[in-house]
Write a structure and sequence with these properties.
This protein has about 200 residues and is of the alpha+beta class. The protein has one domain. Helices cover about 40% and strands about 10% of the residues. It has eight helices and five strands. The strands form two sheets. The protein has a three-stranded antiparallel sheet. The protein has a two-stranded antiparallel sheet with strand order 1-5. Strand 2 and strand 3 form a beta hairpin. Helix 2 runs antiparallel to helix 3 and helix 2 crosses helix 5. The longest helix is centred in the middle third of the chain and has 16 residues. The chain is globular. The N and C termini lie far apart (about 40 Å).
């Protein structure tokens, strides 16, 4: 089956129009996703993965840091697209929109941070998020990590941190299977999490 097709929009034109004081260009509505089996591999250049970069670029153009306590009309618009066209829970869509590709948290390298955001984008693009929500997966088990040192406690890493450039091939109520970039298969199991010590990726300092 062919990979999902999306209607592209031009973020640069959107920003330039606003800078001129005109009516902001309307972001094109994402085309409906062709239903495919969950195990289908998403295209590397995910539309959803580009949303986080667009949000960060728009905030930079306005000289605004995309911090967790900063929310603009641009973020609202992008979060709505992710939520409604991707079938993503609202809080997950907002969290993904807040991820700033240019500013990794402390103790996370830029390369690893970009890989994590891309993994999140593919997860949303392939419609795994809707399945995860239906199965009862919470956001901490997907996007969570240790508050002070994200990689210090492997038992605190959420599923999307564990993908690490590979791909998700199975998702069940309490477990998942990841295929690594080298072809090996890893099992991920939901574990009790220490709330307060484990935080969502967009809450990292």
């Amino acid at each position: 089956m062919a990979a999902p097709a999306f209607t592209k929009f031009d973020p640069r034109a959107f920003l330039e129009s606003e800078a001129r004081g005109g009516i902001p260009a309307k972001v094109a509505k994402v085309a409906k996703v062709v239903k495919a089996p969950p195990e289908q591999k998403a295209e590397p250049n995910s539309t959803f993965a580009a949303f986080a970069a667009f949000a960060a670029g728009r905030a930079e153009a306005r000289n605004i840091e995309p911090r967790p306590d900063t929310w603009t009309d641009a973020y609202e618009e992008l979060a709505a697209i992710v939520e409604y066209d991707g079938g993503v829970p609202r809080d997950w869509a907002e969290g993904f929109t807040r991820l700033d590709r240019s500013k990794p948290p402390a103790h996370v390298s830029l390369k690893r941070w970009l890989r994590f955001i891309d993994d999140c984008g593919r997860f949303l693009d392939a419609r795994w998020a809707a399945r995860a929500a239906a199965l009862g997966w919470g956001p901490l088990h997907l996007f969570g990590c240790d508050r002070k040192r994200p990689f210090a406690r492997l038992d605190h890493l959420g599923l999307l941190w564990e993908i690490n450039g590979g791909r998700l091939i199975e998702l069940h109520r309490n477990r998942a299977v990841i295929e690594t970039a080298w072809g090996a298969r890893l099992a991920y199991r939901c574990r009790p999490l220490e709330v307060g010590r484990v935080v969502l990726a967009w809450e990292l300092a």
